[in-house]
């Protein structure tokens, strides 16, 4: 009986630590205005006739925060996609620090709208008639945002304090950018 009580206590302690870790990740994700992020996505979707609005996913936001933190600690805020294996779509955004002539560096104020609009600007490089990017250009961030069957998004940001660079991660479900299919 004593052995099983110890086992239960260990499980409770582990569960409390896991809950605290998830809570901390959610707190980081809360730094982003989720309402503005989703609204910016839905503006781009509505512009091409995608009426199904994206909804905010706390689970995707936690997952995005985990990847953003990984990029911060393991990749010094340099962008690299996670290995989604089709489980979710993913867009990344990187911003440098503001650098002043006197050598100071400070964190750039980047809004969710700026991040989403940077991806949306790829619309100019998407050839809808041929369902591909214009030669030499990228458009996959844009097509993921407006992918008709995608219904949920969660975003996060990590800041490298020493360089004041930041990396943003948005993850989408279901994933878009399916080869041979049009986004809308």
What does this structure look like?
The protein has five helices and eight strands. By secondary structure, the chain is of the alpha+beta class. The strands form three sheets. The protein has a four-stranded mixed β-sheet, with helices on both faces. α1 crosses α3 and α2 packs parallel to α4 (112-120). It is globular. The relative contact order is 0.21. Residues 4-30 have low confidence and may be disordered.
Which descriptors would you attach to this protein?
184 residues, alpha+beta, four-stranded mixed β-sheet, two-stranded antiparallel ribbon, 5 helices, 19% strand
- Count the E strands: 8
Beta fraction of the residues?
A: 15-25%
Residue-averaged pLDDT: 87
Strand order of the largest sheet: 1-7-8-2
> Largest sheet, described in full?
4 strands, mixed
| Distinct helical segment count | 5
- Straight-line N-to-C gap: 61 Å
- What percent of the residues sit in helical stretches (DSSP H or I)? 40-55%
Q: So what's the overall shape?
A: globular
Model regions low in confidence, pLDDT < 50 over at least 5 residues: 4-30
Radius of gyration: 19 Å
Give, in order, the helices and strands.
HHEHEEEHEEHEE
Brief summary of the model shown:
With 184 residues, the protein is α+β, with helices and mostly antiparallel strands.
Write the layout of secondary structure elements.
Layout: H1 2-29, H2 34-47, E1 55-56, H3 58-75, E2 89-95, E3 98-99, E4 105-106, H4 112-120, E5 126-127, E6 132-133, H5 140-146, E7 152-160, E8 165-173
Helix pairs in contact: 1-3, 2-4
